[in-house]
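Input record (one chain):
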Amino acid sequence: MDAALVRLAESAVALAVVLVAFGLHLSGLVRIPMPSLNPARFRAGGVLGAFCLGALTGTLSSPCATPILVAILSLVAFEKKILWGTTLLLSYSIGHVALLFVAGTVAGFVTVWAGSRAAVWADRLHRGFGLLMLGTGLAVGAAALLPLLST
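The corresponding structure, as predicted from the sequence alone:
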């Protein structure tokens, strides 16, 4: 059997294992302990803590933000319209930060919402998607293993 095909099958099996594990966890059939952070540790972070959090957020959002920033900066460099470029960058940064602001604002709403009847449906949906993920993982694993077992 071709080595590239074997590597592809191994990758598919690894994906299947991850899908099955998290499908079992999301459906509530198996409990996988997830790491948790103590929020009290971050209350007195001060300027250094804010800087570190901003650096981490920037690092995590970089793969999403970089293509847009490259496009805007390339446009500005080729057209040599500094004011237009500044306006585009300002608009992009306002839109980018607005999403983070909304996410932070919604956190309080989610706490109140978690006690409502909608939370029951959200839990059912959560479990349903977990079962769907579990089924997908089993299908991917079977599709990856069957050709290997038949040779």
